[in-house]
């Protein structure tokens, strides 16, 4: 039968890279079941419909033509693979660079927040912080007990509430906390220690101790909860713990709970909201611990303590004194201005 002319570059000007045939080839490949059957089918087409095998070209020339086409596309495939690998390498490098940048920005932001939390002490925190150390009463301890230490001695008599005489209000603190009868507590800047007396023979499995970020429950099973409610500040739950032991000062047992503060630059007024508040201006900071602090933190704590002493004496804080000095200097530089009616806060 008649044969079609040889499919050579001179008679067929269509590039084999023309993607418009991809759909047809893909359909054919799926029908014949793979690459090898596809090549075999194409060779059969050349045999049946062209003179590729029966024409004037020698066998070596025909093989050379097939190999030339193979080498051409093998070279292109290798080049495309190299380009793809280079792009992937570049993409991964850029992704790693972005990841490192995000991580650095995150660390910088966290450091900035930490610095601001330590350094930016507002008047409100300075007031509530109550870091001043008023002269201790005769026979009293000059430093508060740290959380986790042996529980404090019970007071011989209930301490009176502080009068509102410019030195704050609330209960006079005992060991920077208070003894409420059903429980007592102490605190340092870092944590609180809560002590709850329970009946003799009480086992740990009979206790319900639930410590959440800002909620505390202390209860003996089958009895009314001794403590249950919202704490005034947040705690680091993973650093909180409790234990039960024989009460060294009684016939019963004692539950000891340590609550690690999230904000370790502030004194608590009570363990739970709604409980009686202590006067934080009368707490006794552990001055001996200042040497353990880093420079910036120590400077901040010392400033808070100075401000507290100034407030207790009815004198301006460091910031207030600075503002007054600036105002005084401004008034001296502008004698022509009348400040007699100025309202100065």
From TrEMBL:
Q: Which InterPro entries match?
A: CS_dom, HSP20-like_chaperone, NudC_fam, NudC_N_dom
A biological process (GO) of this protein is: protein folding
Pfam annotation, one family: CS
Ranges for domain CS come to 178-272
GO MF annotations in UniProt? unfolded protein binding
Q: Where in the cell is it found?
A: Cytoplasm
Specify whether Phosphoprotein is a keyword of the entry. Answer: yes
For this record, an example GO cellular component is:
cytoplasm
- What is the predominant subcellular site recorded for this chain? cytoplasm
Recite the UniProt keywords alphabetically.
Answer: Cytoplasm, Phosphoprotein
Renumbered to this chain, region (Disordered) spans 69-174
Q: Which PROSITE patterns match?
A: CS
The UniProt regions of compositional bias labelled Basic and acidic residues, in chain numbering, are: 76-120
Question: What are the Low complexity biased-composition ranges?
Answer: 126-163
Q: Which family does it belong to?
A: Belongs to the nudC family.
Q: Which PANTHER family match?
A: NUCLEAR MIGRATION PROTEIN NUDC (PTHR12356:SF3), NUCLEAR MOVEMENT PROTEIN NUDC (PTHR12356)
Name of the protein in its database record: Nuclear migration protein nudC
Q: Which organism is it from?
A: Haptolina brevifila
